Structures are given as C-alpha cells and as structure tokens.
Amino acid sequence: MIYLVTDSTAYLSREEASALGVLMVPMAYIRNGREAFQEGFAEDWLPQREEILGTYSTAQAQVSAFLYLFERIKAQGHQALCLTISSRLSGTYLNALKAAEETGECVQVVDSRTTAGAMYLLLKAARKLLDAGAGLMECFEAMKAMRGRTRTLFTIQDMEPLRRSGRLGFMRSSVSTLLNLRPLLTLSDGSVVSRALARGKQDVQRLLAQEVTGKPQEVIVQHCGGEDSAQALADRLRGQGKTVSIRRIGIVLAIHLGVPILSVAWVSPEEAAPA
C-alpha cells in the first residue's frame, strides 16, 4: 500500500483526510512566545475577532514527526508519498526529506512549491493515480510535473504580516494597501511575488476571476474571514462555467498573511501549461 502524507497547511478536514487516505503532520504555532499549539484539521480553528495574530509565531513540521510516521509505514511493509508546503515558504520540506532519507527508498518527498488549496488538488490527483494502479515513483514524477501547473493568487488587507514573515520574493516597494489599493499576489515557483494592484473589493473580485483561464477541472476559492467575499467570487467563477469549491485557510498561514485572506487556486490543464 502507498500512503499519502502531507502537512497541515493543506487544510484537509478529517473527513477529507480519511476519504483520500492522507496522513497529516502538524505545523506548530506559538502564542506570546510561551504557549505552543499544533495546527489541526481545517475545522479545528476559526478566526476570532479578538484574536491578535501579530502576537503569534509559527514553527515548521518537525523531522521527528515525519520520521515517526515514515518508520511506522515502513514497519508495516508499506510505502509513502509525501507532499509538503513550498520549501520557499517553510523548512518543512527539508525536514520531511531528512526523515525520508533516514527511512529509506520506501518514502518519496515532493516539494509542492505551493500550499493550501493547490496542495489539496495535488493530493486529490495523487490519490486518483494511486487508485488507478500507479507505483510510488510514477506518482512521484507525476506530482513533480503537475506542481508546475498549479496556480495560486491571493489578496490580503495588510502587507505588514507578510513583510514581517520574510516570505516575500521580489516585491515592488509601491505595493500598498493604502488608498483602497489591494495587492494581488501569486506563488511563482513557490515564492510570493506581486501580480497586480486592485482598487477596492469589486476590482479584487474581477481580477481574481479574470486570472482563472482555460478549463481547469476544479477551482478552489480559499478564505480566512470574509466569507461573503469568498462566496461572491465563487458565484462569479461559477457564472463563467467553472466548477468551484470553497475552502478555509487555517491559522498558520493566517499568522503570516493576516486576516482577511481571499485566494483562488487551480491546476492548469496540460495543454495550457507554459513551455
């Protein structure tokens, strides 16, 4: 048997993890530098108005957690394919890789170069391949090819949490949320970069929907707070004939991005992928 393993920023519900046969390794977050918690499944945290996320920090999924899981899988005579958050956003991939190297060839680790909804889509595609009889290395290579076709765009209300996090790639100094301007950001090869500027909520909706080109099998609208905006974007995309799912973003990414967050993610069809 080949197990799928991921970290908690895929934001699977318990039901989804069970249906997809995915084992989850938690990220950690720390409040006021003193109280440590493990990030759980998607339903385990909802943003609270009184919660000041600026007092929180995060910690990557640990080598020991991956190693414990991988060794149990190996001891039972099974294999594992592990997909992690982008290595340019977290050290989680390197920790999983180190644990896999200690475990042996029965474990392969893919740097997804993405996170959240796009990583969920990769996991769904991996499960489909495995159910169709693909072997470990075949699925490993397929995920490395597919990750280049994932697309994630998002907007945030305040740039300061992202600047503090150190997760920015190239970013023009002019990107601002002043004067009702909202940055439209994207993941480019796993790094956060500027895509465009939108003026107001309606322009955000228009630009996010406009970016979803081609005919992806499924589009993920993601949010943390701002449920009305997420529903409006989903309705706009459905009006374009897209199949849309709405998903929540959890606390670890919220700490780095602030709240609210509105995002869209999809996998481009192969024929639409850039050369």
Quick summary of this structure?
The chain folds into two domains: 2-147, Rossmann fold, CATH 3.40.50; 150-272, 2-Layer Sandwich (Hypothetical Protein Tm841, Chain: A,domain 3). The chain has 275 residues and is α/β, with parallel strands linked by helices. It is built from nine helices and 13 strands.
Walk me through this protein's architecture:
The chain is of the alpha/beta class and 275 residues long. Helices cover 36% and strands 27% of the residues. It folds into 2 domains: 2-147, Rossmann fold, CATH 3.40.50.10170; 150-272, 2-Layer Sandwich (Hypothetical Protein Tm841, Chain: A,domain 3). A 6-stranded mixed beta sheet has the order 10-9-8-13-11-12, sandwiched between helices. It has a 4-stranded parallel beta sheet with strand order 2-1-6-7, with helices on both faces. A 3-stranded antiparallel beta sheet has the order 4-3-5, covered by helices on one side. Strand 1 (2-7), helix 1 and strand 2 form a beta-alpha-beta unit. The chain is globular.
